[in-house]
UniProtKB/TrEMBL annotation:
The chain crosses the membrane at residues 64-85. It comes from Streptosporangium longisporum. Keywords: Membrane, Transmembrane, Transmembrane helix. This is DUF3040 domain-containing protein. Residues 44-56 have a biased composition (Basic residues). It holds the Pfam family DUF3040. Residues 37-56 are annotated as: Disordered.
């Protein structure tokens, strides 16, 4: 559906006002409109990126770090318990 002359005139006034008041926003909107038009025409459509390799490597790396941390915590707790039990056993009178 085509715009009437009054509607086109009002849109041009709004556009001029926008460019005068906030040129950065106007430039961003123009860039956005160009990208939308390009995608509608089928130009330079991006293919979705595959991140499986990286994310699984990160997952494996973080899993190893977490497992090592838990092992270290368990070892420290066991060591402290052994030290406390030995100290209490030495302090007990027979």
């Amino acid at each position: 559906m085509a715009w009437s002359q009054d509607e086109e005139r009002m849109l041009l006034q709004i556009e001029r006002y926008l460019v005068d008041e906030d040129p950065r926003l106007a430039a961003r909107l123009e860039s956005f409109n160009e990208r939308v038009q390009r995608n509608e025409r089928g130009g330079r459509a991006r293919a979705p990126r595959k991140r499986r390799g990286r994310s699984s490597a990160r997952l494996r790396r973080s899993t190893v770090i977490i497992m090592f941390s838990w092992l270290l915590i368990a070892t420290l707790i066991a060591t402290l318990l052994i030290m406390v039990l030995r100290h209490e056993a030495a302090a007990l009178p027979f």
